[in-house]
Amino acid sequence: MARPRSFDRDHVLHAAERQFRASGYNGTSVDDISAATGLGRGSLYAAFDGKHGVLMQAMGGYFARLGEGPRKALAGPDEGALERLHAYLLRAVHGVPLAPDVPPAPDRTGAACFAAKMALEIGASDPEVQRLAHDCFAVVRTAVAECVRAAQRNGDIDPDADPDDLAYLLLTVIRGSDVVGAYGHSPDRLTSIAESAFALLPRPRQS
Amino acid sequence: MARPRSFDRDHVLHAAERQFRASGYNGTSVDDISAATGLGRGSLYAAFDGKHGVLMQAMGGYFARLGEGPRKALAGPDEGALERLHAYLLRAVHGVPLAPDVPPAPDRTGAACFAAKMALEIGASDPEVQRLAHDCFAVVRTAVAECVRAAQRNGDIDPDADPDDLAYLLLTVIRGSDVVGAYGHSPDRLTSIAESAFALLPRPRQS
DNA sequence: ACCCTTCTTGACAACCCAGTACAGAACCAT
DNA sequence: ATGGTTCTGTACTGGGTTGTCAAGAAGGGT
């Protein structure tokens, strides 16, 4: 018995995310968000509680999308774990897609980790953002570590290696590729970096 | 026959860099810079041409400091190249110090690469910043590649490995450690990541 | 057809910010 | 001492930003 919303919540949050990515948090005004999403100021404040609310909800959505990637790509039987890790690494360095049906980033600005980017800009003064970024890292890290353990059980990775250390290292490579790839380097270069990292994973000694 | 400056140029730029690091570019006002440096607005505009000028000069100073590190730490004879690379990597993941006599970062906000941070925030709309960040990456990358080549000549790294690929990978690890270490992870963790990366460098096959 | 609830829109006021201009202070050379 | 030149600090202005408010539009139940 009331007027329904005329916008799609996720669509709005994706547009806002694109805007935040392109201009940064402090570089985007509420009017920018309004223009990017098509919503008026009032609707934005009513539905998302203003600029910061939009950011938090957009980051929440990003976190959910980000978590799906490693969980789906890395979970599975021990057999093939190394191959899954390989495939995930190659995809991860190219970023997290906005939607499942738009796999490649529209341009390079969409590739870097949204959470990391926001955390670097305002995390120092915004504990919520900081914590969300930390969670984003943790979900990737734990999934990778679990996959490494599976590969070790299958005899594809040196059992003496510490899975958590390797996961931290791979997470670092993924995050670093965001930065390196952000400007001035081609996607091919990122793929090459991912391949190098994968190739250097410690294989079991052949006795 | 004129009044001399009453401030130290580098000191001002360091203070501005700290401020930019802490609040981001768009998050710091000219008044913030004024407060952090002690200079009035007029002096800032006369000496540095406003906010953007301060940023560019601060980034220029950072670039000079950044370049010194790998050049001094990595250059040298083939013998010991691997060890130099090891030492450099361990230091690099902890950031570039503001001054040679203040080696450790005061707090974690000072650790991440200043150029990368600024490029991520405003590089998309500021080609100058983008280029400067690219140069910062290149100087590290080429120095690392050169050191890898030296280590290869000395028989410490697999001669079949591509030095440029390895340099890109190590650069990525260093950049990634900035992001991972920015919030929520201890310096020990960064050291551990650097050690893991170093340990995985391809050694020559023992025949 | 009517009404009530919710959404949407545009405008408004208070505030902050970048950049400029002007007046005063400091310093050095003569 | 004095003058000229440069630096320093502050006040001002125009533009942009945020958050709020009230009036209008739209839809569903009765």
From TrEMBL, chains A, B:
<dbReference type="GO" id="GO:0003677">
    <property type="term" value="F:DNA binding"/>
</dbReference>
<keyword id="KW-0804">Transcription</keyword>
<protein>
    <submittedName>
        <fullName>TetR family transcriptional regulator</fullName>
    </submittedName>
</protein>
<dbReference type="InterPro" id="IPR036271">
    <property type="entry name" value="Tet_transcr_reg_TetR-rel_C_sf"/>
</dbReference>
<dbReference type="InterPro" id="IPR001647">
    <property type="entry name" value="HTH_TetR"/>
</dbReference>
<dbReference type="InterPro" id="IPR009057">
    <property type="entry name" value="Homeodomain-like_sf"/>
</dbReference>
<feature type="DNA-binding region" description="H-T-H motif">
    <location>
        <begin position="29"/>
        <end position="48"/>
    </location>
</feature>
<dbReference type="Pfam" id="PF00440">
    <property type="entry name" value="TetR_N"/>
</dbReference>
<keyword id="KW-0805">Transcription regulation</keyword>
<keyword id="KW-0238">DNA-binding</keyword>
<dbReference type="InterPro" id="IPR023772">
    <property type="entry name" value="DNA-bd_HTH_TetR-type_CS"/>
</dbReference>
<dbReference type="InterPro" id="IPR011075">
    <property type="entry name" value="TetR_C"/>
</dbReference>
<feature type="domain" description="HTH tetR-type">
    <location>
        <begin position="6"/>
        <end position="66"/>
    </location>
</feature>
<dbReference type="Pfam" id="PF16925">
    <property type="entry name" value="TetR_C_13"/>
</dbReference>
